[in-house]
Amino acid sequence: MRDRRADTLGQCALRAARISTSRSFCMTVLIDELTAQEIIFLRSQGIRPEEVFDGRGMSNPTWKARAKEGQFDFVLAGRCTNGGHRLKTRAGHCIQCRTSSIAFVRRENAKANVYLAAANNRTVIKIGYASWIYAREETLREQGYGGHWDWEILCWVKTQNAGQVEREISHLFSQHRISGSYIKGYEVQEAVEMFSYDVDKAIKLFEKYARDKLGLDATIITNF
Q: In whole angstroms, how far apart are CA 29 and each of 17, 102, 112, 141, 166?
């Protein structure tokens, strides 16, 4: 009888090797094909050549799909109409014409935990994301984010596109947005990621989004 587990592990290893080979091939082509100006630009933005998918010779729908499949945020493809640049986001926006799109893409596609926190005796909630949940909870308290010092992170979900998920969950509470202020780096900062919303209902909405949109179960602190 064949060992199904061994077969599965073998298939996973083969797939990983193919992905690795594909990325290596893409990187080699890009190093050879990038212009000096493009290399200087990538370095100035902290983007490594191996982070750029080689979409040359492909139709727009094809390289967009391939880049998404390979989890590439940036693409080398056809020239833009403004400056004749070839470096783009996966959505097709020129990152040389509009460098702000780089930060947006990185935030949207960050691999992190999207969380729901509560403060002010749990009458105020906040949606955000962080790599380390408990470290973020401590920071919120130390900063007195939004003028509150009793922040608790009550549920979270780990995702591959934290910025997008954070934005979509925040939209669920958009009619209840409130603002506040706090001190960061010796300067007054405005806090706009807070909502006045019942915490129990908020957690249920958060949990439903994670299950319906992401196919994931949110981690919920059960003793709050």
A: 18, 22, 30, 48, 35
Q: Tell me the C-alpha distance between 133 and 115, whole Å.
A: 8
Tens digits of residue pLDDT in 84-95: 999 999 889 999
Q: What is the pLDDT of residues 7-48, one digit of tens each?
A: 433 343 334 334 444 444 444 346 778 899 999 999 999 988
Helix/strand/coil percent split, the chain, to 5: 45, 25, 30
Listed in sequence order, the residues at least 6 apart from 42 whose beta carbon sits closer than 8 Å to its beta carbon are 34, 48, 49, 52, 87
CA-to-CA dists, residue 28 to 90, 173, 177, angstroms: 20, 46, 48
Residue 166 has pLDDT above 50, yes or no: yes
CB 126 within 8 A of CB 169: no
89 conformational bin, left if phi > 0, alpha if psi -120 to 50, beta if neither? beta
Token readout for 97 is 């014409």
Across 67-197, where does the E strand assignment appear? 74-76, 87-89, 112-119, 124-130, 152-159, 177-184, 187-196
Instruction: Quote the pTM value.
Output: 0.68
Cα separation, 127 vs 93, in Å, equals 27
CA distance readout (Å), 205 to 126, 154, 218: 13, 13, 11
Task: Count CB-CB contacts under 10 A for residue 166.
Answer: 21
